[in-house]
Amino acid sequence: MQHSFWEKEIYFRQIDYVIVGSGIVGLSTGISILEKEPKANVLIVDKESIPTGASTRNAGFACFGSLSELMDDLNQHSEESVFTLFKRRFQGIQKLLSRCGNSINYHSCGGYEIFHNSDYLQYIPLVNDKIFSYTGIKDHFSTVSPSTLEEQGLSSFSAAVFTPNEAYLHPMLMIQELQKRFVSMNGKLLMGCSVHSWNENDSHININLGTTEITAKALIVCINGFAKQLLPELEVHAARNQVFVLETEQQHKLQACYHYNKGYVYFRKIDSKHILIGGGRDQDIEQEYQTNFEINPKISQYLLTFAQTNILTNITFKIKDHWGGILGLGPSKSTIIKACSPRVFAAVRMGGMGVALGSLVGEETAELVLEKTS
Ligand SMILES: Cc1cc2nc3c(=O)[nH]c(=O)nc-3n(C[C@H](O)[C@H](O)[C@H](O)COP(=O)(O)OP(=O)(O)OC[C@H]3O[C@@H](n4cnc5c(N)ncnc54)[C@H](O)[C@@H]3O)c2cc1C
Predict the structure, then answer these.
(1) Which residues line ligand 1 (CB under 6 A)?
(2) Three-state DSSP class for 34?
(3) What is the pLDDT of residue 321?
(4) Are residues 39 and 87 in the same domain?
């Protein structure tokens, strides 16, 4: 089908920057470009009608790393990289809040990490010191009494740490707010459209969208776990993660966000009769390196058993919703923000932390693209 003169005028003519992917990173990059260059013409394309990767399918945690996750990272990476990443997650959330304010159901409920023994508690002073020196945040983690766990229906655990700095939010409201902001700045959003191919020269890049071809200054790839489909040379591995919403017959006692086993399992309150539980990727790790959204039954069973045994011990529940999302992982936990060629840029590999990192990554990507192409 041919595009009309009007369609071409709005979507396809005199475009400066084409962003692929309308998750948190694509939208944040678009917004940051327009904040710096308000007259730029920015087009975001996404191959699906609803953004379909992780940004609208995650668990809605605003978190920076649990104690056991940080300790595990310290065993594999330098102190500087671990706490710089913590700081970047914190800064990213601050930036997201400055953009979306109160409209994303942000609940500063705090977060617990729960344990079956007290081994990790000895590391609290060390980790708190490091967090303070990198971020200025005081006493991030503190210990929790067994009675606090009991009050929340978690008496099968024997130890826990608490941080007041974690929160949960509504992922779809977050994306909706970012979409509104981008469009209000005259950004253009085209859903159901993907990039087929491109070729670039010294002055511009021609981008083939299937139905039409656009000439722009740059193409910016923000498709995280799907990055290899457009840029096969990037070290990004797609990995699935699944989530349940469970509806309880009686009121449950959860009050906040919770992490278990280095962040592999997470759960939280939605309302007095619904909880969310997700993760469990470590139960079948090799099998989960996938871009398809199918559900792994082994992991589903693990999460349901975990919920029944440890969270909703004497509470009857049924499955209300169950879905999967796709993460972008790699050999290191750092994000890829780079020029792949003079006119093609990538902002991918959020490492399962893109809610926290996405707004900051968008800002850094915009700076890189504008510096290289203006
Ligand atoms: C279950 C789950 C729990 C999570 N928990 C947390 C958490 O607690 N804290 C946290 O910070 N993060 C968490 N994350 C990770 C976070 O959601 C992601 O890191 C983040 O959403 C990635 O955003 P993105 O914009 O880079 O990619 P995505 O949100 O995946 O967006 C990519 C977009 O690109 C589109 N696309 C793909 N291929 C193409 C193509 N060829 N052409 C056009 N468009 C294309 C897709 O449709 C999609 O809309 C979780 C993720 C999941 C799935």
Answers:
(1) 20-26, 45-48, 51-55, 57-59, 61, 63, 194-195, 222-226, 229-230, 241, 243, 278, 325-327, 350, 352-356, 358
(2) helix
(3) 98
(4) no
pLDDT tens-digit readout, 206-243: 999 998 999 999 999 999 999 999 999 999 999 999 99
∠71-74-75 over CA atoms, to 5°?
A: 95
Ligand 1 centre to CA of 173 (Å) is 15
How many angstroms separate the CA atoms of 364 and 320, rounded? Answer: 39
Judge whether 206 lies within some domain.
yes
DSSP string computed for 336-356: EEEEEETTEEEEE--TT-HHH
Q: Are residues 131 and 177 in the same domain?
A: no
Kindly report, residue by residue over 153-181, the tens digit of the pLDDT. Answer: 999 999 999 999 999 999 999 999 999 99
Amino acid at 49: S
Tokens of 3: 């595009």
For residue 111, the cross-strand partners are 163, 257
